[in-house]
UniProtKB/TrEMBL annotation:
The chain crosses the membrane at residues 7-28, 40-60, 81-99, 105-124, 136-162, 182-200. This is PAP2 superfamily protein. Keywords: Membrane, Transmembrane, Transmembrane helix. It comes from Ulvibacter antarcticus. The keyword Membrane applies. It comes from the Bacteria.
């Protein structure tokens, strides 16, 4: 059980959530999108939200700004979150168009608002669960996609509800977060996606 709970924190890492959201969107959308365009955008999201942050982490670690990938101390989160906000802003400006791909565009706008909120809370010395924030935001996005496209993806949504519980249990088991930090992470992830539904749903 110990390994199972710890594994949840890695397989459901917040850096993976934007990429997973894109892959699911392109898998279920009824819109016609050329396969080359899909691949190019997924590849761009993978580079910007996954590979660049990993390289940035090693740079920050060498500069002794962060001590580990877990970002245990609140102050360690400041620069990684700043970098994350800039990278998400780059995706919004360069990868997705609000007219061609409104669903993904506003999905990333929601991610940006959540990341900025998490950064503001860091300056207030409060550490929310970024894992919970990522999974909860993606779950809300999937619910909205099911309603928007009028398709049955209840199985996928159910899996992500389980994933929310898995992540919460994992973070509590490893003493990475307490209940207020998990609850705050959940709402910081969900509320921006919920508010932005007015622009595309």
């Amino acid at each position: 059980m110990n390994y199972f709970l710890r594994f949840g924190a890695y397989i459901l890492h917040p850096l993976l959530m934007p990429l997973i959201g894109c892959v699911i969107y392109f898998s279920i959308t009824p819109r016609f999108i050329e396969i080359d365009i899909m691949r190019a955008r997924v590849f761009a999201v993978a580079i910007i939200t996954l590979f660049i942050p990993i390289i940035s982490f090693f740079l920050l670690k060498n500069l002794n700004i962060v001590q580990s990938i877990h970002l245990i101390e609140v102050k360690e989160r400041k620069y990684p979150l700043m970098i994350h906000c800039l990278l998400i802003l780059l995706i919004i400006k360069m990868v997705f168009d609000p007219y061609e791909s409104p669903e993904l565009y506003y999905f990333f706008v929601g991610i940006l608002f959540a990341a900025v909120t998490a950064l503001i809370l860091v300056f207030l010395k409060f550490k929310i669960s970024l894992h919970q924030m990522g999974v909860a935001g993606l779950t809300m996005f999937l619910i909205a996609l099911g309603v928007h496209f009028k398709i049955n993806i209840l199985g996928t949504i159910a899996l992500f509800f389980i994933a929310n519980g898995w992540v919460a249990s994992s973070r509590l088991h490893t003493n990475s977060h307490n209940y207020p930090e998990l609850i705050a992470g959940f709402f910081v992830g969900v509320i921006p996606q919920l508010i932005l539904l007015n622009f595309w749903l």
